[in-house]
Every structure is written in C-alpha cells, then in structure tokens.
TrEMBL record:
<protein>
    <submittedName>
        <fullName>PAN domain-containing protein At5g03700</fullName>
    </submittedName>
</protein>
<dbReference type="Pfam" id="PF00954">
    <property type="entry name" value="S_locus_glycop"/>
</dbReference>
<feature type="transmembrane region" description="Helical">
    <location>
        <begin position="418"/>
        <end position="441"/>
    </location>
</feature>
<dbReference type="InterPro" id="IPR003609">
    <property type="entry name" value="Pan_app"/>
</dbReference>
<keyword id="KW-0812">Transmembrane</keyword>
<dbReference type="InterPro" id="IPR000858">
    <property type="entry name" value="S_locus_glycoprot_dom"/>
</dbReference>
<keyword id="KW-0732">Signal</keyword>
<dbReference type="InterPro" id="IPR036426">
    <property type="entry name" value="Bulb-type_lectin_dom_sf"/>
</dbReference>
<keyword id="KW-1133">Transmembrane helix</keyword>
<dbReference type="InterPro" id="IPR035446">
    <property type="entry name" value="SLSG/EP1"/>
</dbReference>
<feature type="signal peptide">
    <location>
        <begin position="1"/>
        <end position="23"/>
    </location>
</feature>
<dbReference type="InterPro" id="IPR051343">
    <property type="entry name" value="G-type_lectin_kinases/EP1-like"/>
</dbReference>
<feature type="domain" description="Apple">
    <location>
        <begin position="326"/>
        <end position="409"/>
    </location>
</feature>
<keyword id="KW-0472">Membrane</keyword>
<dbReference type="GO" id="GO:0048544">
    <property type="term" value="P:recognition of pollen"/>
</dbReference>
<keyword id="KW-1015">Disulfide bond</keyword>
Length: 482
C-alpha cells in the first residue's frame, strides 16, 4: 500500500517534470523567468503561438552564443530576432525575464535587450508577431515585434519608412525612400557618412500614383505572392510579383536581406523553404560578390583587381586590414591602375564629368576621402568611390579605366605580426624562424598567381528563373560574420 502511494507520487512528479520540459507556454505572465538549457542543440522554445508553428525561442548561434528569436518550428529558421547589444552566452548567467518588460540579461554583464514596457502579458500571435499588452478590458498592445523587424519581413507585416531590415552580418540594409525601395551597404565604416545605395526599385505607380505630401509609403508582402508598395488605402502603387504570384502556397511567405546583400523571397512548401524572388539575380550585380579589391566578370567569376595581391583565404584584400586614408598615421597607399573596368551599380554612384582620364585620376589622388575613380572615355563620367574599394566589374572595354588606392601601412603591420607569431612559435630557435619565414615567403610568392574562381550557381530548390546564389557556392560573398 505504502509502496503503491509512493509509486503514484513518483508518477505524478514524473509527469509534471515531463510536462514542464516539453509543453511550451502560450502566454507569459509577470514573474516569468527562463535560462538556457545546456543540452539544447538548435533552439529552445519558450512561448508558442496557437498553431505551434512558431515559437519565441533561445536560438543557438556560433555554438555557444544565444539570440532571442521567433523561430519557424518545422524548419528552425529564425523570422525575427531581438536586436540586442551583442549576443548573450548560452549558459547559466543568461536569463530571460518578464517583469512588465521582456528583459534578456546576463548576471555578469547586465542587460542585453529590453522592451522597456509595463505590460501584464506576452503572447505570440500567429502572424508571427510577439505582443506585450495590458490586462483588463482595454487590452492595448504596448509593444509588438512587427514594429522592430530584424532581417526578415513576413507576409502582412507593414514595413514603414521608419524601419530598416538589416542583414545579420550588419553590412546591408533595406529602407524605403519617398517613392522607392532601396538597398544600402555599410562600406564606409562606423562613421558619419551615409551608406552607399546599390539597388533601387522605384514604384511603377501603374494603378495609383504616389502623391507628394500625402504621407509616407509602406511595403507589405501579400499572401497572393507579391511585394506591394502602398501609400494610402489598399490599391498598391507598385507590385513586384514573385514566382508563385497568385498561387496559394501552404506556408508563410517571407523576404530577407541576405548576408551577401541580396533581397530574397521564400515561401514554405510544407517541407522546405522555396526561393521565389530575388531582387538581384546576377551575381556580379551584388554589392561585393568578390570581396574588397575583387573583380567580378559576368558569367565567369572572381579574380583580383591587383595581380600582385592574389586571393588569401579567398579574399583579395583582408577587409579588417583596411584603414583610414585620412587618418593621422602615415597614410601610405599603393596605386593600382586597370583598364576594362567599370563601377557596379553605376547608375547609383556619384560622378563628375572631366575632359580626360588624367584629370579624373588627379581629382582622386590628392583627396584622402577618395579611394578610387572609374572613368568612361566615351561619356567622360568620372565615378568617385569614397569608401574602401569593393568588387569592381570587369567589362573589357578599353575605354573604361580605373584608379584605386590600396592602403599600405596595414599590410606592413600584418607582416610584422606574422613575423612575431613565427618567432614565438620557434622560441629561441631564431634561425629556424628565419627558415620558416623564408619558406612562407616563398610559398606565398608561388601562390600569387592569377586565379579565376568559377561561379557555381547553386540551385537550392529554386523554381523558375531564380537561382540561389548562396554564400556556400560563392566563397567571398559573406564579408563578415557579424
Ligand atoms: C525589470 O527588470 C529590469 C532588469 O532587471 C529592470 O531594469 C527593470 O526596472 C524592471 N522593470 C520593472 C517594471 O520592474
Ligand atoms: C498595415 O497597414 C494597413 C494600412 O495602413 C492596415 O490596414 C493594417 O491593419 C496594418 N497591418 C498590421 C498588421 O499592422
Ligand atoms: C487617400 O488620399 C486621398 C487623396 O489625397 C485622400 O482624399 C483620402 O482621404 C486618402 N485616403 C486614406 C484612407 O487615407
Ligand atoms: C593583370 O593580369 C592581366 C592578365 O594577365 C593583365 O591583362 C592585366 O593588365 C594585369 N593588370 C595589372 C594591373 O597588372
Ligand atoms: C574629396 O572627395 C570627396 C568625395 O570623396 C568630395 O566630396 C570632396 O569635395 C573632395 N574634396 C576636394 C578638395 O576635392
Ligand atoms: C579616349 O578618347 C579620346 C578621344 O575620343 C582618344 O583620343 C583616346 O585615345 C581615348 N583614350 C583611351 C585610353 O581609350
């Protein structure tokens, strides 16, 4: 009898434990607290929507770091992330609490992210949209994740001119202008300068015109398979249709600013995400497909602007070594001249007109904010690049030429560091160090050969003309991992 009761208690405790660890909550109330579970590999659901398709989760990133994310459960793809100051650790000191605000913090390093609200409950609506609201009759929404997009926009989410979608590596962003969608790159470093625009889609205004002063536009992905620009009412000022236009699809649609600067659209087929829209279908039209000081030849692939600095680890020039030409340090730079090149997205680049190439080059040489110029001998356009040189287009026309500055001080420092490294490794055996150094030098010389990487167009579940030019197939597409 006694044993029976004991077993019953055990069973009850066991069910309670199991329930606590598997069932995801549908609502968070004040006093809620959760810490990351060390055994979870991909994501740890915290709060679920009513369908169970989405959950607010701890998402594992870079092995031991954590992001607060809304995850599409069947695929594990993140559709929203808290835009926190840095990433938290996947470990005990990290915790998410709800005390009126959702707060992600680390007991050691403090608050990473907070909604700064005084709400009563948190729910995940099936859009998916995370909402914090007040209790009671006027259950007003105080905060919603729809207003703070990360790199993704889901269908029916309003994207306004006050928002931006930023790629997860922080380099590329989508924003709205008065009558266009723009994609911008952060090539200028953390400074005051505005970002470089590399893609612009002006509203066609076929069915409704955009009226100046009648309010800002907004962008929305429709479940009918298009991306619409709206100013007022429901008639779109612009429609960009996806491959699956007016086809009903089983799962949600989303668009995302990718780490290579493209804007892509996907829908969930029930078993996988299908790519059905790409803003920039040609690889060489991406903002920097071959990395800094790279050269992209349409249909062929990547090489380097400078034949003497051939690709190291897939990059023509290590971007973290790029300095400031206007800095106080001796700003030495090497000059590269090359014919048969033109700027990418040239219709969006600033230019002046000069009578000759020499004049164009001279305007850049003496100006420390100028990193290079590209000249077209036919139009006399002198395009000015005021950020460290990214990928340039190789076109082969002899009347198009370029002049580029390559920061040299950084290269010297790098060689010094390499020397110190080798020295330490060899300890007192300086002689051996020299031998190794010499060997490395010889090797790197031998590797300085002109190499063309062929562009492979990786077709991940693409329907129609859109191909996924994913980062895996295109070595230096990802300029950094955040
Ligand atoms: C909730 O917790 C955070 C972090 O501990 C704190 O800064 C904030 O003041 C708290 N908010 C309320 C309403 O207690
Ligand atoms: C998006 O904006 C439209 C028009 O302003 C509005 O009717 C709709 O409710 C908004 N949708 C959401 C989810 O906020
Ligand atoms: C749309 O714009 C027209 C013209 O400016 C205006 O008369 C109308 O009230 C607007 N409608 C809405 C829903 O804002
Ligand atoms: C680099 O090599 C290519 C092909 O060998 C040649 O056409 C080009 O002029 C060279 N460029 C420079 C800057 O040396
Ligand atoms: C230097 O170049 C920048 C653009 O890179 C331009 O705005 C500025 O006017 C130039 N300065 C001079 C003195 O030419
Ligand atoms: C540029 O054009 C001028 C006049 O059309 C011509 O004389 C000159 O040779 C051209 N330069 C180059 C490098 O093609």
């Amino acid at each position: 009898m006694e044993i029976c009761r004991f077993l019953m208690y055990l069973a009850i405790i066991f069910t309670l434990l199991v329930e606590e660890s598997t069932a995801t909550l549908q609502e968070l109330l004040k006093g809620f607290i959760v810490t990351p579970n060390p055994t979870v590999k991909n994501f740890q659901p915290i709060l679920s929507d009513s369908s169970g398709d989405f959950s607010l989760s701890f998402l594992r990133v870079n092995q031991d770091q954590l992001a607060l994310a809304i995850v599409h459960v069947p695929s594990g793809v993140s559709l929203w992330q808290a835009n926190s100051v840095g990433l938290a650790r996947w470990g005990k000191p990290t915790r998410l609490i709800f005390n009126g605000s959702l707060v992600l913090s680390d007991l050691d390093s403090g608050v990473f992210w907070s909604t700064r609200t005084e709400g009563d409950r948190v729910v995940l609506a099936s859009a998916p949209n995370l909402r914090i609201s007040k209790a009671g009759k006027s259950s007003s929404v105080l905060w919603q994740s729809f207003e703070f997009p990360y790199d993704t926009l889901v269908e029916n989410q309003n994207f306004t001119s006050a928002m931006s979608l930023v790629s997860s590596n922080g380099l590329y962003a989508m924003r709205l202008g008065p009558d266009f969608i723009g994609l911008y790159a952060k090539f200028k470093g953390p400074g005051s300068d505005p970002d470089q625009i590399y893609y612009r889609r002006r509203a066609m205004q076929a069915k409704a015109s955009i009226i100046q002063g009648a309010g800002p536009i907004l962008l929305r992905v429709s479940s009918d398979g298009f991306m619409g620009i709206y100013q007022n009412g429901s008639i779109p000022n612009d429609v960009q249709s996806f491959n699956s236009y007016q086809r009903s699809v089983s799962g949600p649609r989303r668009i995302r600013v990718e780490n290579n600067g493209n804007l892509k659209g996907y829908y969930w087929s029930g078993s996988s995400w299908v790519l059905d829209y790409e803003a920039i279908p040609e690889t060489c039209d991406l903002p920097s497909p071959c990395g800094p000081y790279g050269l992209c030849r349409p249909g062929v692939g990547c090489s380097c602007l400078d034949n003497q600095t051939q690709a190291q680890n897939g990059d023509c020039y290590p971007k973290q070594e790029i300095g400031d030409l206007c800095g106080s340090e001796e700003n030495k730079f090497r000059e590269i001249r090359r014919t048969g090149v033109e700027p990418p997205y040239k219709e969006l680049m600033g230019y002046t007109q000069t009578e000759s190439y020499e004049e164009c080059e001279k305007s850049c040489m003496m100006n420390c904010t100028c990193w290079g110029v590209l000249y077209n001998n036919a139009s006399k356009f002198c395009y000015n690049v005021d950020y460290p040189i990214q990928t340039i287009l190789e076109v082969g026309h002899e009347n198009k030429m370029g002049y580029f500055k390559l920061w040299e001080v950084a290269k010297k420092k790098r060689d010094q560091r390499l020397g110190i490294g080798i020295g330490l490794l060899c300890g007192a055996m300086i002689v051996l160090g020299f031998v190794v150094g010499f060997g490395v030098y010889k090797l790197s010389k031998r590797n300085k050969r002109f190499k063309n990487r062929i562009l492979e167009e990786d077709n991940i579940n693409a329907t129609g003309p859109y191909k996924d030019l994913g980062s895996s197939s295109f070595g230096s597409v990802e300029l950094s991992n955040r």
